[in-house]
Each structure stands twice: as structure tokens, then as C-alpha cells.
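Exercise 7.
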Amino acid sequence: MDCPDCGASLKVPERSVEAPAPVVDKATSQSKTRLTDSEDGVRSSAKSIFRAKRKAQTEAESSGKEFDSSQFDQDKLPRKVVLALLFVLVLVIGVYSVYVMQPVKRLEFTDEQANALLQGMNTKDDSSVTALMDAYLNAQCTCTEMMAEILRYIDSEEKLEEVLGDLKRLSQIAMIKNPLVDAIDRNSPNMEMYSLMEEYQGRQTGAHGKMQDEVLRIQGIDATMVDRLKDEVRAISELQMFQG
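Solution. The predicted structure, written as C-alpha cells, is:
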């Protein structure tokens, strides 16, 4: 036969060589099949939308109405989702703003609470070292936490005057020394007591940190209020910010 490109004569072999059957990768074949099915699904969905849109347009034109194609736009769903997320975000910000703007309620320090704290500070429960330490340190930490909460209420001289007595009382309770507690050897190899000390040390550190944050906030409002707190409430004067 002649070559269709150059015109040269070419000899065709008398025996044809059968090519081996192609090796098909089953996984690749299945993947391509799934991909094809997915593409067919997309095309089918697009065609369905197109047919529905065309039908609605024809019905609108036949009845003399204006055709609205917005309901068939495929980008409507993402837009609606974005608008919904924006609405939720605005709602959350609004709720949080209302919460932040609400005035802090005064923590009422009652005689019953004071008596319970005094019992803890003056505990004589010598059934075990840990029981004694637990009662004492729990009362001490509670006093500090309550002082931090009361300080949150102060944003004026009037409010300071309202709660100054409670702060003084809590400070006095927190400073009580317990002879039984002072006699405990805190360096003794008692793992249970060591764990207890670690727990209350973290709790007390956190409470002191909150107290200091509130004192700094009050200082930003009126420094003279902080001077008065430092002079009249011993627990506040011993905060780290006033040391050195």
C-alpha cells in the first residue's frame, strides 16, 4: 500500500499480530465509574432545573405574567446560608452586649455565711491532718473569692461605701491564724496533704488574680477609691501589685 503522507510504498505483513488485551485496574475503573455517575447526576440535575425553569417561563408567558427566574438560580442557597450566618452572628453579639451592659449585682454577705467561714478558719477537726487543712484552706479561699466578687460591684464612691464593711469583715476572717494548722509540718512526705496543698494553692492564686484585676479596674475609674481600699482592707493591701 502507499503511505498516505509521503506516497512511499509500504509492505503489509501477511500475518497480523494480535495485541494483548489491555490490563484494567479495577480500582481505577470503579473510580472512573463513580466519577462518571456523579457527573451524570450533576448533568441530570442541571437538566431538571433547566426543564422546570423553561416550563415555568412558558406558563408565565402564556398567562401574560412576568417570569421570575430567581427561584431557579443555583447560587441562591449559598447566599441564604451566608445571610443566615450573619443573622446568627449579629444576634449573638447583641445578646452578649446586653449581658455586658447589665449592672453587676451586689453579692450579699450574710451573718450565716460569716459564721460558716469562721468555723472553717477556727476548725479543731484533728481527726486527720488533711481534714484540718481542708476546712481551713477552703474557708480562706472562699473569703478571697467573695472579696473578688464584691469588688466587681464597685464602680462609684457610693457603691464602695455600700460594700466596704463586707470587705473588711471578709479580710479579717481570711487573716485568722489557726494554731492547729500552724503546727502542721507542711514539708512532711504526705502525698495526700501535698495534693491538697497544690489544689488550694491554685485556687487561692486564681482568686488573688481576680481581686487584683478588679482593683486595677477600679483604679481606672477613680484612684482615690483604691487608696481607700488599700488603707482599710488588709487583704487588698497585701496584693502583689502593692508589694515592693
